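Troubleshooting entry. The earlier prediction with NAP gave an output that would not parse, so I re-checked the input for stray whitespace and re-submitted. Clean input:
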Amino acid sequence: MTIEHLHINGIPTPVSRIGLGTWAIGGRLWGGSDDSSSEATIRSAIDRGINLIDTAPAYGYGHSEEIIGKALAGIRDQVVIATKVGLEWPEQRPRRNASRARIREEIEASLRRLRTDRIDLYQVHWPDPLTPIEETARELEALRREGKILAIGVSNHSCEQMDAFRAVASLAAVQPPYNLFERAIDADVLPYAREHDLTVLAYGALCRGLLSGRMSAERAFQGDDLRQKDPKFQQPRFGQYLSAVDALTALARDRHGKSMLALAIRWVLDRGPTIALWGARKPEQLEGIDDAFGWRLSEQDLADIDRLLVEHVTDPIGPEFMAPPARTT
Ligand code: NAP
């Protein structure tokens, strides 16, 4: 597993270029989860060389963090824990709140659930239009000085919002959506991260399973699985994305002897100072992660991939459906 560097406490710290994404481990919006399988997945990730685990209080309303805290008992120091702040969920309806008071409430709850005395990377989950960015940044900087968090990140923020944030607090990382199908950050956030030495935690690296190479039009999503509403998973668009995956699968196999999964991760890793967050909830879903390393995509590969996407996905759409609303008061 190759490494990227994340500035933790101002010191470049080696982290694995694949991070474990644990949204589905929270259960909510993924049709439920099995806790013993989730814990086994976390341990399996560490055994495979993954040392970054990304979570959020909103994932299962604390459940993902609780499972991580349990799974890391006795081995917490082996792992870089990245969690988030800035959402609340009155009556189980998530909305944005990155105010000073909410941050103080959330940090204590996250430390308790994660069974730790510090969070390695604390990320603002979504910008909150009702709280000045300076207020959020100032509070995170205060937490950093107090030693409760070691590094600060933002997620789903624009370059302008990051400028405002960086005027007040030191920023180590940014977490945007980024995968073969969702690459809006190529135009702004990725060059910005390069310029300002930010590590990019790319979320949805597998496009919610679409890029696993194992998705089919027959797949039925259970319970509250968000893919029932994800516009990429609705026909006729779903068919377009699946046919692009077929073409990409052939390219990965014929040119590199690699799987679709390896291609999806390799593509993210070849684009810059990126870490690919791989969402998994069963240990076997992490099989083959080593296949993403030891090779690179050529300029010709990248151009051909772009051509295939234009050819197959005639009605592309982004991941905007995931954005939680702001508070109304
Ligand atoms: P993802 O990593 O793109 O896809 C995860 C899904 O892909 C899994 O739940 C699984 O679906 C499927 N999958 C994984 N490995 C597979 C394999 N080997 N074979 C077949 N299917 C496989 O999606 P994500 O979990 O949404 O994103 C990754 C992480 O990024 C999250 O867990 C979270 O930590 C973070 N994230 C952050 C934000 C943000 O706003 N900051 C937003 C979204 C995600 P099934 O188990 O259903 O088959």
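This one parsed fine. The pocket of NAP is lined by residues 21-24, 54, 125, 155-156, 175, 203-209, 212, 214, 261, 277-281, 285, 322 (CB under 6 Å).
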